[in-house]
Write a structure and sequence with these properties.
- By secondary structure, the chain is α/β, with parallel strands linked by helices.
- The protein has two domains: 218 residues, Glycogen Phosphorylase B (Rossmann fold); 171 residues, Glycogen Phosphorylase B (Rossmann fold, 3-Layer(aba) Sandwich).
- 37% of the residues lie in helices and 20% in strands.
- It is built from 14 helices and 15 strands.
- β6, α3 and β7 form a beta-alpha-beta unit.
- α4 runs antiparallel to α5 and α7 packs across α11.
- It is globular and about 65 Å long.
């Protein structure tokens, strides 16, 4: 049986092969799907190049690739070309599981609805929030209007969706239920393998307290508010912020750090891999801070908890399903974030307590447990995806599926 899925990454084509320049979706990325389905077709944007990209190959004898126009941003003509190219997906597979929200998922969903073909979603985020927070450079009324339009479009997409496998336990499926909510289930797609977990003992009363933030350098990751919070409390003790990530606002953040007089306390590491930098920084840190304005279930936060690291986070997405309310702060509230950091970085006992709690909570995200849940849902989709209203996911579980 063949499954068609989508992704929002920009891939590369060299000769007759397809590559992932960010090394995020190589062959191993799809092993859970290929454990349930015989073959896989990936639909995504792609650009043909003349030189070997020296990165992970995506396609093989079981993974096919359907490339569409490599449009970017608000390229309306490029989007229209991609939409027309997506039309050929109808009838190409036995089941359709679309990673959403995303432009490619919306295009594929459009043609499937027109053909009355059921499809399912891998729901990973809230498109309304992302739309609002990435358009804040325009006036607030326009930003709100853009959010409403995006939410309307996504709700139309969800009307043709007959089941969600969401990355949060409750939050996303409550906001965007499918046309058949009894088929919706939450199970994080973050694969925390055994080697990631470490019950790590730390000295929570160091001379210099190391704080870590891992995120793409984008406006909706909230770095501005983290910088402002640290500016307010910069003289309370010796500290250092390790910023891991790359993106278009790097120079803007450097200027802001200088303006707020914290530039000497911030290390901009750029992009780092797990094995060649991130793991060492996490193990030598004392506090992880997530300042995002929107998230689904952030992998970096779960990885920090798996290394026994205390966590303070904005109350976004499904974070409150894994982090206690006492460690959460509202988005865009620099004062509240400053107070929360101050309360904990001056209390070794509180940090130690949080460290122990986090390591205990994160056990629910072990790969073996979540992989089993996802496999059961994917198996239901495979066996009953052509009649999802007759034999729902809930019924399937009740009879011992």
């Amino acid at each position: 049986m063949k499954l068609l899925t989508t992704h929002e990454l920009h891939y590369l084509k060299y000769k007759d092969a397809y590559f992932d320049p960010k090394n995020l979706t190589g062959n191993n990325h799809f092993f859970e799907l290929l454990d349930v389905f015989d073959d896989l077709v990936l639909v995504a944007r792609c650009k043909e190049i003349a030189k070997d990209p020296q990165c992970q190959r995506v396609d093989n004898d079981r993974i096919g690739f359907l490339p569409v126009n490599d449009f970017r941003g608000y390229d309306l003509f490029g989007r229209q070309v991609a939409l027309l190219q997506c039309r050929k997906i109808v009838g190409l597979a036995d089941r359709y599981w679309l990673r959403s929200p995303g432009s490619i998922a919306s295009m594929v969903g459009y043609w499937l609805r027109r053909a009355n073909v059921p499809y399912f979603s891998h729901l990973v985020g809230n498109p309304g929030e992302v739309a609002e927070y990435t358009t804040e450079h325009v006036s607030k009324p326009i930003s709100k209007l853009i959010r409403k339009i995006i939410e309307f479009q996504f709700n139309s997409y969800m009307k043709g969706c007959y089941g969600n496998l969401s990355v949060t336990e409750r939050w996303l499926q409550e906001i965007y239920p499918s046309a058949e909510p009894s088929n919706d289930m939450g199970a994080s797609d973050v694969n925390l393998s055994y080697d990631i977990f470490k019950e790590h003992q730390r000295d929570f009363n160091p001379k210099v307290l190391n704080i870590v933030n891992i995120a793409a350098l984008l406006p909706y990751k909230g770095h501005q508010f983290l910088f402002e919070a640290l500016h307010y409390i910069r003289n309370q003790r010796e500290w250092c912020l390790h910023l891991i990530g790359e993106g278009p606002i790097l120079e803007k953040l450097k200027y802001l750090a200088k303006d707020l007089k914290i530039i000497d306390n911030v290390v901009f590491h750029g992009h780092l891999g797990w094995a060649n930098g991130i793991i060492d920084i996490l193990d030598n840190a004392h506090l992880f801070v997530l300042s995002s304005l929107t998230e689904g279930m952030p992998r970096v936060l779960l990885e920090a908890m798996a290394r026994s690291l205390p966590v303070i986070s904005t109350d976004v997405g499904g974070v409150n399903e894994v982090v206690s309310n006492e460690y959460l702060v509202p988005i865009k509230d620099s004062n509240c974030l400053a107070k929360k950091i101050s309360d904990y970085w001056n209390s070794p006992l509180k940090l130690e307590k949080m460290s122990i709690e986090n390591f205990e909570k994160i056990q629910d995200f072990r790969f073996d447990r979540l992989s089993l849940l996802r496999k059961k849902w994917l198996t239901w989709m495979r066996d009953y995806g052509d009649r999802p209203s007759e034999r729902t996911w809930e019924q399937y579980i009740q009879i011992g599926g």
